[in-house]
Amino acid sequence: IRVREFPNGFEYIEIQNSSAKAKIALQGAHIFEYQRVGEEAILWLSEISDFEQGRAIRGGVPVCWPWFGFNEDKNLPQHGFARTSMWEFVGANEVNESKTTLLFRLTNSEQTLKIWNYKFLLELQITISKELKMELKTTNLDDKAFKISQALHTYFSVSHISEVTISGLDKKPYLDALSWQKEVQGGNIYFEEEVDRVYQEIDEKIVLRDKNREINIKNKNSSSAVIWNPWIEKTLRMSAMKEDAYKYFVCIESANAFDDARVIEPKQSHTLIVQIF
Ligand code: BG6
Q1: Is 247 in the pocket of ligand 1 (CB under 6 A)?
Q2: Fewest beta carbons within 10 Å, which of 2, 95, 176, 264?
Q3: pLDDT-derived band at 64, boundaries 50, 70, 90
Q4: Could you report the predicted ipTM of this complex, rounded to two decimals?
């Protein structure tokens, strides 16, 4: 485990054990590389991502918190402030030679209280092993309840978007974020155009199939998932993405969004968990 930095001073943790290697930025507690030994990278990272303070990394797993998507106040940042905040690296635990856990922490500051007036503790535990596990725990340290929506916004690297099939969401209702209509999924998901959907009532694992590879995504304390690919035109409008970037990733986001947003009472916690294997 080493703390490293880019030439501009942007810091990240580099970790390698006998099963995988990973890189996690202190800004956002943002994992931007995870690769099992002898296998291809699981996470997609834009070749032209910014590693700059105050700008979210394009790729990996942005932590969207304490709101997912737009805030009603349009002056506030999309997907909340956690992904652009500096987190504290609490420490690492080498459970055994093939399994390491890392803990990151974010608490309210003068700045966060200005845009979101609640006291909180947010902890992200990342387990690097044959599987990648992320546990995002929100604790309400305030004396009033608050409501959060959130997502572990995973960008999966794929050989080509036209090879991708997603299963596990058959018959699930979803909100189509392109039309704001409620729809119901029929069968597997394929990609032939822009897709931006919030699936609800999820209770089983989601499977991403791509040519010769299968990736399983199992969520806990979450019944919503976002499936997103910007396709051609939106990619051109996106920051830090090359014009053909959409061909090489798909986002499957483990969420508590829309109907699945959570109210957390004072002194109570909620932990959103994803296991990727
Ligand atoms: C997804 C949303 O979760 O995030 C998309 O569903 C959005 O609509 C995407 O474009 C990326 O957002 P951002 O803020 O990282 O550019």
Answers
A1: no
A2: 2
A3: very high
A4: 0.98
